[in-house]
Amino acid sequence: MKIQSLSLIVMFFLASWALNAQTTTQKSSTSTSEITQLKKSSKSIVHSDYAGMEEKILKALKANTIPENLPKYTKGQSLESYKLVLKEWAKKNESLFTDDYKAKLKAKKKN
Questions:
Q1: Average of pLDDT values for 90-95?
Q2: Nearest-CA neighbor of 66 among 87, 50, 51?
Q3: What's the burial of 57, exposed, middle or buried (CB within 10 Å: 0-12/13-18/19+)?
Q4: Using CA atoms, how far apart are residues 58 and 81, in angstroms rounded to an integer?
Q5: Alpha-carbon distance 23 to 7, whole Å?
Q6: 3-state DSSP assignment of residue 1
Q7: Fewest beta carbons less than 10 Å away: which of 26, 44, 51, 96?
Q8: 3-state secondary structure 36-68
Q9: Whole-model pTM?
């Protein structure tokens, strides 16, 4: 009887320990992946002259090159602030953009 009780207690302890270890592992792996994702997105902004938006910019432009007078991202500048700078530049340089991109902008303004 004592051996059965002791066995049940040991099994209960091991089961609790295993569940706790699994939960802790899931929490730490989620945190690690979130940190990794944050680091990747931060690197693309920090190491890019255009806040990692080169592909999007090139797609919107008629030419397959980024103009020399396009404002560059400044280290420490917020992404929102940089996007505002780009919008102001785009208004002054409308002729450089594709008709599709201009149509998308007009559609956004209507909504």
A1: 93
A2: 50
A3: middle
A4: 20
A5: 24
A6: coil
A7: 26
A8: HHHHHHHHHHHCCCCCCCHHHHHHHECCCCCCC
A9: 0.56
- Give me 41's structure tokens: 């997105």
Instruction: Please indicate whether residue 38 or residue 14 has the higher confidence score (pLDDT).
Output: 14
> Is 14 buried (19+), middle (13-18) or exposed (0-12) by CB count in 10 A?
exposed
Which of 99-111 are b and which e, b meaning 16 or more Cβ less than 10 Å from the residue's Cβ?
A: eebeeeeeeeeee
- Quote the CA–CA distance of 25 and 81 in Å, as a whole number: 38
**Contact yes or no for 99/58 (Cβ under 8 A):** no
If pLDDT is split at 50, 70 and 90, which confidence band does 34 have?
low
Task: Please identify which residue in the block is written with the tokens 């953009």.
Answer: 97
H or E segment to which residue 71 belongs: none
Q: 41, 74 in Cβ contact below 8 A?
A: no
Q: Where are the domains of the chain?
A: 1-47, 49-111
